[in-house]
Amino acid sequence: MSMLRMAAVAEPFDRDLDGDFERIAKIIAAARAEGVRLLALPEACLGGYLADLNGAAEQPPALRVDGPEIARLTELAGDMVVCAGYCEADGDRRYNSVVCVGGGRVLGNHRKVHQPLREDASYASGDGFAAFDTPVGRIGMLICYDKAFPESARALALDGAQIVVCVSAWPGSRTGAPENLADDRWTRRFDLFDRARALENQVVWLSANQAGTFGSLRFVCSAKVVDPGGDVLATTGVVPGMAIADIDVTAALEAARRHMGHLRDRRPDTYGS
């Protein structure tokens, strides 16, 4: 057996980039002390998310994937594989992106494809999904609303992703919100998407989320690790923290797919375009 210890984080982040890096350094140090080899930090953990979704919010700082901030993240990660959300600068365009770093280099980068409400007033949209190889296995990455679309995770699974890392800034309900986030309908939806995407693709699912409040948004936390059968191995629940789980990824995928192989048993000729 080759066990992999992985962790997903629910913590608050804001526009104070130096403060964000201080928090990330502490999180990585705590994860390293626990023997974590794959760590998922939230969407927009470098510079914070949008303060509201009406297109009028102050913009997060835009960072180049080959710039000094991602180099700083890479240095902090060391030999750990770390996925972290940020606002990516590419020429005059800005993307809501997630980068994966480890072993002194950038391993992968994903630009959020699906944009809720007025997020498109702040970011350009990504145009695809691709898995990539890392020291801990083949990974695919998604951002928040991407996971509401089955095609997103399926594209990664068909590209050989064994682990899907989904980083989010997923808020609770904006209308009729209960006091307790555990009772919030958007918390339930967040958790349902995590479990369904893991199960239907028979992959390991690592889900990070923002915590606390930022502007008009209150985030549902609920960072978790889900196995290929859709069972939650670890979760922070609706509070900040780090969900840590050990899993033999290869063995778990083989066991899940041995009899009911959802990817193997597809009938794409019947589905239409």
SSE run: EHEEHEEEEEHEHEEEEEEH
Q: What is the β-strand count?
A: 15
Radius of gyration: 17 Å
Q: What is the CATH C level class, in words? A: Alpha Beta
Architecture per CATH nomenclature, i.e. the level-2 architecture: 4-Layer Sandwich
> Approximately how much beta-strand content do the residues carry?
25-35%
How would you name the CATH homologous superfamily? Carbon-nitrogen hydrolase
* Mean pLDDT rating: 96
What does this structure look like?
The chain is α/β, with parallel strands linked by helices and 273 residues long. It has one domain (4-260): Nitrilase/N-carbamoyl-D-aminoacid amidohydrolase (4-Layer Sandwich). The chain is 23% helix and 30% strand. The strands form two sheets. Strands 1, 2, 3, 4, 5, 6, 7, 8, 9, 10, 13, 14 and 15 form a 13-stranded mixed β-sheet that branches. A two-stranded antiparallel sheet has the order 11-12. The longest helix is centred in the first third of the chain and has 17 residues, at 17-33. The chain is globular. The mean pLDDT is 96. Keywords: Hydrolase.
Attribute tags:
Nitrilase/N-carbamoyl-D-aminoacid amidohydrolase; 15 strands; 273 residues; two-stranded antiparallel sheet; 23% helix; 13-stranded mixed β-sheet; alpha/beta; C-N_Hydrolase
